[in-house]
Amino acid sequence: MYAKHSLVSCPDWATALLNGFSQVLLLRNPLCGLCCLLAMLLTAPALVGGALLGALAGLLTAQRRGYDRSDRQAGLYCYNAVLIGILISAVLPWSAILPPLIIAAGGVSSILTHQWRKRGGKLLTAYTAPFVLLGWATLQLASPSPGGYVEAEPLHALARGVGQIFLLDQPLAGVLIILGVLIANPYAALWALIGSAIGGGAALFAGEAQAAWLGLYGFNAALAALAFSRQGEKPWVSLLAIALALLLQALFNQLPLPALTAPFVVACWLMHLGSHLARHSHKGDGARLHS
Prior knowledge:
Layout: H1 13-23, H2 30-43, H3 48-64, H4 69-73, H5 79-91, H6 98-119, H7 129-139, H8 154-163, H9 171-184, H10 186-205, H11 209-213, H12 219-229, H13 235-252, H14 262-290
């Protein structure tokens, strides 16, 4: 993990950074990352600088600390930095301190991701946990802003549910991100839409109409669907992950801070734990049968 050859820079920085954007969606595909970057550029250009600066800080930190070269190239030390760069740019007013803050947060996210990968094992995969922790700290510095209002448009809500993964609330952003996922993994793209649709439906059922149309119940469900559909799991596994993410979102909504992607992360941890316990139980039953 810390071999000297790891200090060599990535062979293609552009690919590594684009992979970092696609890894937000748990995919490794530079074209997918390019679609995500384009979605931001066209619908929220003020956030592009923060996203790129955070990604670059995460990659440089990983290189400086000698993290595995192939992991750096895969974007595994950029995606949390992308998200924290976007969040800081979105919730804090512009000032001279903002770029250094994004650089620092991006670097810290890279270190946290590495430590999580070392110590979390298969049960506590990092996912976007570093972003959530840094995001909650960031939101302590931000002034609360009133939520927007959008018309009841189911198709727009479906797209927003995916776009909100990157904190983007324009339907065009969601469409471009879905296109990127489609390029990388068509089956995962279908499940991202299913997750967004189920999340929106759950919000309507709970009487949260504006949250449904804004896609605020769709993005954690879409991420949970992406996490398991890309692994070729059976459909019921992805559906269970979606249901867990939505249940946890209702619980996290009781906190004074936005949940961000915490429901998705905890839902995946619970899924991994359940799978682990089921395997051990099955092995125990098999051993008793043969004894």
